[in-house]
Amino acid sequence: MSLPTESIQKPQFSEAAKAEIDRICKQYPAERRKSAMLPVLHIAQAEFGGWVAPEVQDLVAEVLGVKPIEVYEVSTFYTMFNLKPVGKHVLEICRTGPCQLRGSDELTLELERITGAKVGEGPSADGLFTLKEVECLAACGFAPVVQVREKYYEQLDTEESVNAMLSELRNMVHRPALPWEETGLPNALANN
Ligand code: FES
């Protein structure tokens, strides 16, 4: 009887991501590749479905020439890295003072009601949305604010603005190209 030795396929970065990682790492001395940890983790998260599974973090460690534990220490410290599977869109809802004064608590409840997802829990049943509360997104003048990838949705204090955001996200067939991509979707995200 043969044993399933390769039941889990090892993740691999796309060629575009590898080129971007090389470009970033060249900004540091060869013996300091670890300094590129944050941008490489961001690339990994974008490449592999919006979260960094343990095997993806191991790949990051391999690429940077560090021990896996050194990557785990960083990924578990910064809240921008998702350690569990997420929905197609991760809505980062600012909960800091100015946004709270402008209704972020009510916005969170409304987003939970509409999407069916709960803050801090798994994706909505349709797989479209994950809700996260985050600290100040540095757009306080436009509170309340939600960040989805590189885009900010601002002044979400009306039913119309919230519905417009959700409608735009629901109708997004492909996510926007990332800075290191020419066009299209690399590997795992195509199905996300
Ligand atoms: S408090 Fe929400 S963006 Fe600053």
UniProtKB/TrEMBL annotation:
- Transmembrane stretches in the record are none
Q: Which GO terms describe its molecular function?
A: 2 iron, 2 sulfur cluster binding; metal ion binding; NADH dehydrogenase activity
Q: How is the cofactor bound?
A: Binds 1 [2Fe-2S] cluster.
Give the InterPro entries listed for this entry.
NuoE-like (IPR002023), NuoE_dom (IPR042128), NuoE_N (IPR041921), Thioredoxin-like_sf (IPR036249)
Pfam families from the UniProt entry: 2Fe-2S_thioredx
Question: Do the record's keywords include Metal-binding?
Answer: yes
Cofactor(s) it depends on: [2Fe-2S] cluster
What keywords were assigned to this record?
2Fe-2S, Iron, Iron-sulfur, Metal-binding
User: Which sites bind [2Fe-2S] cluster?
Assistant: 94, 99, 136, 140
PANTHER family tied to this protein: NADH DEHYDROGENASE [UBIQUINONE] FLAVOPROTEIN 2, MITOCHONDRIAL (PTHR10371:SF3), NADH DEHYDROGENASE UBIQUINONE FLAVOPROTEIN 2, MITOCHONDRIAL (PTHR10371)
Q: Which family does it belong to?
A: Belongs to the complex I 24 kDa subunit family.
Which named protein is this?
NADH dehydrogenase subunit E
Q: Say which species the protein is native to.
A: Hymenobacter daecheongensis DSM 21074
Q: What is the lineage of its organism?
A: Bacteria, Pseudomonadati, Bacteroidota, Cytophagia, Cytophagales
